[in-house]
Amino acid sequence: MRTHSLCITLAFTLHLKRVWSESELTDAYLDEVSIAAGIEHSCAIYLRSKHNVAGRVICWGDNQGGQCSAPAGEFVQISSGRLHSCGIRQEETIECWGSGIIEKDPEGLYQQVSSGDFHSCGLLRDHSIRCWGESLSEETSPPKGSFVQVSCGRGFTCAVNNQGQGLCWGDNSQGQCDVPYNVSFLQISASSGEFACGVTTDFAVICWGNNSRMQCYAPQDQQFVLVSAGRLSACGITKAHYIVCWGLRSGVTSAPKDVQFDEIALGSNHGCGLRHSDGKVQCWGDRSQHKLLVPSIL
Questions:
Q1: pLDDT (tens digit, 9 = 90+) per residue, 7-48?
Q2: Neighbours of 18 (CB within 10 A)
Q3: Angle at 283 (CA atoms; ends 279, 288), nearest 5 degrees
Q4: Domain that holds residue 171
Q5: What's the distance, CA 286 to chain centroid?
Q6: 115, β-bridge pairs
Q7: Please, what is the average pLDDT of the chain?
Q8: Comparing C-alpha atoms, which of 98, 103, 145 is closest to residue 120?
Q9: Where is the signal peptide (predicted)?
Q10: Considering the domain boundaries, does residue 19 fall inside one?
Q11: Total count of domains within the chain
Q12: How far is the C-alpha of 243 from the C-alpha of 230, rounded, in Å?
């Protein structure tokens, strides 16, 4: 990611499924939303909607490259990068919008997509990975194998294979591709700041790469279910649904501490999450480019 959205459910957007009460389930058309954060913009997708807009993508924030001008139609997963976003349509094809991307409609049928600063990658139906965009450090040259999740960062890409092994490729100037050995991962998040973090099968978070702002020192006294790596900081959601952040003290690390969340996505200086209580989108951090002005429909 110079930022990308995260994935933990083996190829779908990071989302801790909310358990609805019996009374809540009497409404058959409850809203269900998933989110993605790019460098200076964010997007959300209605997975289910009582407003009859299921599959609709809504983006806000910086739109200088057209990254907030989402196409019409129904999508099932989205990811946001620097000046572009990509989404998977119901028919499992990918469409990207914005600037700085070589392919707007990459061939193939996909389970998951991740957008980095200037490149993107998709997890195909056969569990292989295909990448496109800028490739100064071979970040768009994935290894062969069977994978369950992929995450694009700034000049590098990380993935988890079907054995739980983490692999990264591309720029390794800060050790961001030196994935710890003998660790099984549920999910990895590659950042726009030359580091990456992953959630292990023991629900710990391990980070590696650039540690200039202590962003690789994840708390060891918490159990996490997902993690999102920003530019110089990272945040995770604990088993109790609370957000814990570390690294550079910035807008990102000002996440609400007394609110429970089911999902989180970090940009460069802002973050967004899905509240556990009502499924609404809440953002925090830097207010420039209208990044915190979440559309009222969300």
A1: 333 333 344 544 434 444 344 446 789 999 999 999 999 988
A2: 18
A3: 155
A4: 24-290
A5: 18
A6: 120
A7: 90
A8: 103
A9: 1-21
A10: no
A11: 1
A12: 14
The label of the residue with tokens 């990456």 reads 196
Question: Does residue 150 form part of some domain?
Answer: yes
Query: What is the average pLDDT across 281-292?
Result: 95
Taking residue 246's Cβ as centre, other Cβ atoms within 10 Å add up to 20
Residue 136 lies in a domain: yes
Q: Which residue has the higher pLDDT, 49 or 10?
A: 49
CATH number, domain containing residue 113: 2.130.10.30
Q: What is the CA radius of gyration of the chain?
A: 17
**Do 45 and 77 form a contact (C-beta atoms < 8 A)?**
yes
Token pair, residue 125, equals 């139906």
Distance CA 80, CA 164 (A): 25
The CA distance from 216 to 189, in Å, is: 12
Please report, as a single letter, which amino acid is at residue 255: A
Residues paired with residue 131 on neighbouring β-strands, in sequence order = 121
Q: Enter the pTM of the model.
A: 0.90
Tell me, what's the pLDDT at 51? Answer: 72
Go through the chain and tell me how many residues it has. Answer: 298
> DSSP secondary structure string, 225-267?
EEEEE-SSEEEEEETTSBEEEEES-SSGGG--SSSBEEEEEE-
CA-CA distance, 45 to 14, in Å (whole number)? 13
